[in-house]
């Protein structure tokens, strides 16, 4: 599912609003993660902090009306990761203590995915990259022990 240019711009604007609100809240950086929720009924995307204070919101029309679509979640994660990665400079300017994460939550406030980790020296590796790693490590260790 491809997002329109306007929708991507709306999501980036929500990230900018989040950065602005966090810059206004305190003179010192705060300790929090950022939680993204998308209501699949209407496509409303909200970004909030640990205290469930809404920092920004926008509507993602392409994600509305898909309440029972299992593929929607994977598409949301992929699109949000790409948008955050493409706007790394903006994300790096958010004034909260590091490391922090952008976390995807469902409507019951349950974490479904860690979308993006922001830290100076750490990178979050996606599940796609990690697929099959256990088997490869097991094979490597088995061969090492046999030698």
* Span between termini: 49 Å
Mean pLDDT: 86
Give the neighbour order of strands across the main sheet. Answer: 3-2-1-4-5
Q: How much of the residues is beta strand, in percent?
A: 15-25%
Total count of helical runs of at least 4 residues: 5
Give the % helix.
40-55%
Total domains: 1
Largest sheet properties: 5 strands, mixed
Low-confidence stretches: none
Look at the helices and sheets and give the structural class: alpha+beta
What is the N-to-C succession of helices and strands? HEEEHHEEHH
Shape: globular
> Radius of gyration, rounded?
18 Å
The tally of strands reads 5
Secondary-structure blueprint:
Blueprint: H1 5-25, E1 34-39, E2 44-48, E3 54-59, H2 70-86, H3 88-92, E4 100-105, E5 111-118, H4 127-130, H5 133-146
Parallel strand pairs: 1-4
Antiparallel strand pairs: 1-2, 2-3, 4-5
């Amino acid at each position: 599912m491809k997002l329109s240019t306007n929708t991507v711009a709306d999501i980036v604007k929500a990230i900018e609003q989040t950065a602005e609100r966090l810059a206004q809240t305190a003179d010192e950086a705060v300790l929090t993660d950022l939680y993204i929720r998308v209501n699949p009924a209407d496509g409303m995307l909200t970004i909030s902090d640990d205290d469930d204070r809404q920092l920004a919101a926008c509507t993602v029309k392409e994600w509305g009306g898909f309440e029972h679509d299992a593929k929607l979640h994977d598409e949301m994660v992929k699109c949000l990761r790409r948008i955050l990665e493409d706007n790394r400079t903006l994300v790096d300017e958010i004034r909260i203590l590091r490391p922090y994460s952008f976390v995807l939550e469902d409507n019951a406030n349950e974490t479904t995915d860690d979308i993006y980790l922001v830290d100076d020296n750490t990178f979050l590796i996606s599940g796609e990259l990690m697929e099959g790693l256990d088997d490869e490590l097991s094979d490597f260790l088995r061969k090492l022990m046999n030698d």
